[in-house]
Write a structure and sequence with these properties.
Number of strands: 4
Strand order of the largest sheet: 2-3-1-4
Distance between the termini: 21 Å
Structural class: alpha+beta
Radius of gyration: 20 Å
Number of helices: 10
Helix content: 40-55%
Mean pLDDT: 89
């Protein structure tokens, strides 16, 4: 079956997600994180073999590096989105495979992306990306996480070249307002493209209604009372409806592996 073409963005801006194949770690230590951040820098400030500056390949507005996946808020510039991500992925995989004597693919075959066509969703994603470590329970607040772009916003006035185009963002929202917005956690019902489903995630309320109306479940956790075959049938339909693996595992109390394999 032919792959579905990526949806084009009218603004050239995309939310991009890369994940380690089979959810394996892609960062093991600080050297790895710093290596990837250096690659992002090289996309914004490329040079030729003689050291002469070249046009920026892309523009970044936010990034967050997690243990086994990456989020980018990126705009196309002199190169296409696919070419930029290929450059980054290939270069980092070569570094990682050499360092750890790893063989085979490092990243999931195809990165996920979604177009960002309006200002409101742009700022929603700016919040979501920087809040990833908080949502994962890694840090208590956005500012404490070392491997995201938020620090670039905090030091935006010190004149140090940054990976992200903070000036463009801060021209639309002053830092004090942006800080307040980003530090306020998004509701869990916010629709963001999710890794697991590949579609816009359904809210918990929508999933509760789905289980109730489609299968008569008073609570999603009641699915545990069904046989494994029946569980798999219902979980498959729930994923097709738009529930993510993480969400369904949390709501039903059924293990992540069982939900993923259903």
């Amino acid at each position: 079956m032919a792959r579905q073409a990526r949806e084009k963005s009218g603004t050239g801006i995309y939310h991009v997600m890369l994940r380690g194949i089979n959810r394996q770690n892609i960062f093991e230590d600080s050297e790895d994180y710093n290596r990837f951040i250096k690659l992002l820098y090289q996309m914004v400030y490329p040079v030729d073999d003689s050291g002469k500056p070249l046009p920026s390949r892309c523009v970044f507005y936010a990034y967050c590096l997690m243990t086994n996946h990456i989020h980018l808020l990126i705009r196309e510039a002199s190169e296409s989105l696919a070419d930029v991500i290929k450059r980054i992925g290939t270069s980092y995989a070569q570094y990682y495979n050499k360092k750890y004597q790893h063989f085979g693919h490092l990243f999931q075959d195809r990165f996920k992306s979604e177009p960002v066509n309006d200002n409101a969703y742009f700022f929603t994603l700016l919040r979501y990306i920087h809040q990833n470590p908080v949502a994962a329970g890694i840090t208590k607040d956005v500012i404490s996480y070392q491997w995201s772009s938020w620090d670039e916003y905090e030091r935006s006035e010190n004149g140090i070249p940054s990976i992200c185009n903070t000036k463009s963002v801060l021209s639309r929202m002053p830092l004090n307002e942006l800080r307040e917005l980003v530090f306020e956690l998004l509701p869990k019902t916010e629709a963001i493209l999710d890794f697991d489903s590949g579609t816009i995630v359904r809210s918990d309320e929508e999933m509760n209604e789905f289980f109730k109306n489609s299968f008569g479940l008073r609570h999603p956790a009641d699915l545990q009372l069904y046989s494994r075959d029946r569980q798999n049938d219902i979980l498959r339909e729930a994923k097709e409806y738009g529930g993510s693996i993480r969400q369904l595992s949390r709501m039903t109390g059924i293990s992540f592996t069982i939900v993923r394999n259903a």
